[in-house]
Amino acid sequence: MKITPFNDFHLELGAKMAPFGGYQMPIQYSGIKQEHLAVRSGVGVFDVSHMGEFTVEGAQAFDLLQFICSNDISKLQPGKAQYNYFPNEQGGIVDDLIVYQVDVQKYLLVVNAANIEKDWKHIQKYNQKYKAELKDISEKIALLAIQGPDAIATVQSLCEANLTTMEHYSHLTTTLAGIDDVLIATTGYTGAGGVEIYFDPSNARHLWRAIMEAGQDYGIIPVGLAARDTLRLEMGYCLYGNEIDDNTSPISAGLGWVTRPQTGFLNAETHQKTIAEGTEEKLIGFIIEERGIARSGYGLFDVDQNPIGRVTSGTQSPSLQKGIGMGYVKTAHAQTGHTLFVEIREKFVPATVTKPPFIK
Known about the structure:
With 360 residues, the protein is α+β, with helices and mostly antiparallel strands. It folds into three domains: 2-49 and 141-234, 2-Layer Sandwich (Gyrase A, domain 2); 52-134, Alpha-Beta Plaits; 280-360, Elongation Factor Tu (Ef-tu), domain 3 (Beta Barrel), CATH 2.40.30.110. It has helices at residues 7-12, 32-41, 61-68, 116-130, 151-156, 204-214, 225-235, 268-277, and strands at residues 2-3, 16-20, 23-28, 44-47, 52-57, 81-87, 93-103, 106-111, 133-136, 142-147, 171-176, 179-185, 194-199, 221-223, 281-288, 299-301, 307-317, 322-330, 339-344, 347-353. The longest helix has 15 residues, at 116-130. The chain is globular and about 65 Å long. 45% of the residues are buried.
């Protein structure tokens, strides 16, 4: 089991640790609710160094990415980032990722930890035609997410570059707390605003301490993966392995907005047809009307208790103090405001179909 460069800090802080994506990762420190609400109202810092990072460079880098990515890479420019997925040959999803354009012929791909090896093989397979220069730099990158309404102010105090004017899904490389070549991106997985910072692991201890000190006036606290999950769920963000996987139609999953068949990406014809014809099931959000928490795998039912779908993710929303969830249902039952039922401990609990995000 691998550890991140921040492992000593997690242990000193008494974090509850567990395996995730091949790493020992902090699940929680002070408690999920406290950590969650700190990010929504102030600022929290996440160690997400388990994520994978690849660079794609050279004259053929654009052509390779335009073929293996779902979105239109031509819309990128240096200093911008774009959400994508890798379509597979069967119409499913290899992984979802963020593509950062570093310069005209260089891109940084950030992929899910559990899929690093799978993604690398997938990219290499199709690069046999394009012959772009590929590097897996996952072991050479430390990654912290500083998230929340006070995140920019926290990081700005350590940085000469003006972060306050950066648009969403932008990035720059600058000096942070005296450390050169730090990539700061206005990306994240919480919906609370903030940045993610990429840097050499040898600077991990210095930057962790600098950020925690800079955030003291804003009540900064470390946040684990459990609150990361509740935060993303309140926003309705897909999680690979839950809402999306190798067998998921991205159109069913609501990812039509990053599906651009006109670029001619891998298996584009399948997705073009699905966009035109629709899907038998759709990913929905729902709010539970009574006490109860939906869990992945629970059944979803109509008013006559006929099965209509399944839960993919569920939790007690710390912001709403209600049970929320996501899941797939037959398209006829996917309308916002529709009542369905979640089977929780052999009881059918009513829920209302709600279009995420669950909080504004």
